[in-house]
Amino acid sequence: MKRILLLIFCMLSALLCRAENRMQYKGFTGGMMLHTGYVGSSSLSIAALDGTVTEVPVSGAPYGIGGAMKFLFGKHLRIGAEGYVSTLNYGKNDSHAETGWGGILADCVWNAGKWNIFIGGTIGGGSLTNTTILSEISDDYTAEKCISYRKYGFAAFAPFVGAEYALTPKVNLVIKIDYMLNISNMKDDFVTGPRIYLGFMFGHAH
Fold first, then answer.
1. Are the C-beta atoms of residues 99 and 125 closer than 8 Å to each other?
2. How much is the pTM?
3. Cα(9)–Cα(16) distance, rounded to whole angstroms?
4. What is the mean pLDDT of each run of 10 residues along the chain (206 residues)?
């Protein structure tokens, strides 16, 4: 499924480039966005030192921040980069999974008056740090018996769709939805799901 989505994205990008009669640089836009959504992973089976196995469900609403920079070529093609950090708190003892990622993006944008509608994807990578706290920590000396800590990197592809509304000629309100796919190092505790972004983009087009 991941390979199919990546192939579709590459084909759409190639068709878009061929369709553009003029590929002159037309301007730029960039800004910051906050996000939330609903993400999760498989339930974790954590074995304590005494042999007890605890099932820990991982899901909920994340929160985070990041930004993007895009350069417009012709009427429709935008190429740039973006990066974000997203944190999910879960469980009874403030367990948390923090995902940081970024990469190169390309999207196709259509203008409809004050609205811009866009669809595209980002390919890149990042890392996930997952700290699972199995029981309430009463003091620092017992922390190693209560915590599972994992950190690893991954390559990712994140298809997205969104819209921008022109508040002024140089300021747009933007809303975006994406879904990040791990394409290199899938683990049971990899946190993913639809994220929704809201923010402002500043720029100039001509």
1. no
2. 0.85
3. 11
4. 56 54 82 97 78 84 98 93 97 90 96 94 96 74 70 96 96 97 91 97 82
